[in-house]
DNA sequence: GTACGTAGTACCCAAAAGGATACTGTAAAA
DNA sequence: TTTTACAGTATCCTTTTGGGTACTACGTAC
């Protein structure tokens, strides 16, 4: 439809940040995009990369990503079935975003040794504070 | 506790991307951070910037951001009450992330003229495709 | 003396998100 | 002949998230 690229986003009940987060929202979308950035994957390949996800959830998240146009789904009519998931060109434009998210996570988020709990580098952000000046 | 900055994140049931998203997750956190990046705001100032948020939700989201250590809350014991919210140094490290999210939102997310519905620039990403090669 | 602005809480409810489990059909491998 | 891998669905249930409304206290302005 060749919409004029009017930044109608300004009317969004929030801001461009929220707008983007809308598409990344969902428990597994971040990881999925992260892995697909590296290359096409089959359904069960993805599943193995996300040990904790259930089949149902993986399917759901992939369908949503597909509907957004960020990920493509290609079915090969063979048996056993072969379905490949890949980033679309539009999806690839998210690369800088995913990289920014990953970089921050690497620098500031830790798992407590015991379990699954996350924690921020709140202990004064010793080393990281340098990055602040840069 | 001066944890060695071991990247325990590698054990996270997802990846650094998910880890970061964990902290941005919540219907209003993105917008709040976006606005606080520009400077300290009082509770009702924020509220005016987010016409659609309810008092209860704004409070909740702010408390969560405070608990993460991304935002600080300063109470001035005067009457009427005065409470100021500001980014912490740790919160400020999110700036590149917020900027990346905002940039992508600006470029690729549109509101349909009618209403509140979001849509991606899926019509072939005409202009944006150039950015892909860069 | 009533209303207003400030920064919230408390309580209840609806909707959405996520999870557990079981089931499908085909072909090749064991 | 049973099992395995593949890529899912279907059904049900629990948890989380978000929203609506009413209430608070205090001091000032009208």
UniProtKB/TrEMBL annotation, chains A, B:
Database matches in InterPro entries: HTH_HxlR, WH-like_DNA-bd_sf, WH_DNA-bd_sf
Coiled-coil zones: none
Domain called HTH hxlR-type: residue spans: 15-113
Lineage start: Bacteria, Pseudomonadati, Pseudomonadota, Alphaproteobacteria, Hyphomicrobiales
PANTHER family: TRANSCRIPTIONAL REGULATOR, TRANSCRIPTIONAL REGULATOR, MARR FAMILY
Secretion signal span: none
Keywords recorded for this protein, A-Z: DNA-binding, Transcription, Transcription regulation
Protein name: Transcriptional regulator, HxlR family
Gene Ontology MF, one: DNA binding
Organism encoding this protein: Rhizobium leguminosarum bv. trifolii (strain WSM1325)
Keyword Calcium: no
């Amino acid at each position: 439809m060749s919409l004029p690229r009017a930044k109608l986003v300004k009317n969004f009940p929030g801001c461009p940040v929220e707008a983007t987060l809308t598409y990344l929202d969902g428990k597994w979308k971040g990881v999925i995009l992260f892995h697909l950035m590296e290359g096409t994957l089959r359904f069960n390949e993805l599943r193995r990369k996300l040990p904790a996800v259930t089949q149902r959830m993986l399917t759901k998240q992939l369908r949503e990503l597909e509907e957004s146009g960020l990920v493509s789904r290609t079915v090969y009519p063979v048996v056993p079935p072969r379905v490949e998931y890949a980033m679309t060109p539009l999806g690839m434009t998210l690369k800088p975003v995913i990289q920014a998210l990953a970089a921050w996570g690497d620098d500031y988020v830790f798992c407590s040794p015991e379990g699954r709990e996350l924690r921020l580098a709140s202990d004064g952000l010793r080393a990281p504070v340098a990055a602040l000046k840069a």
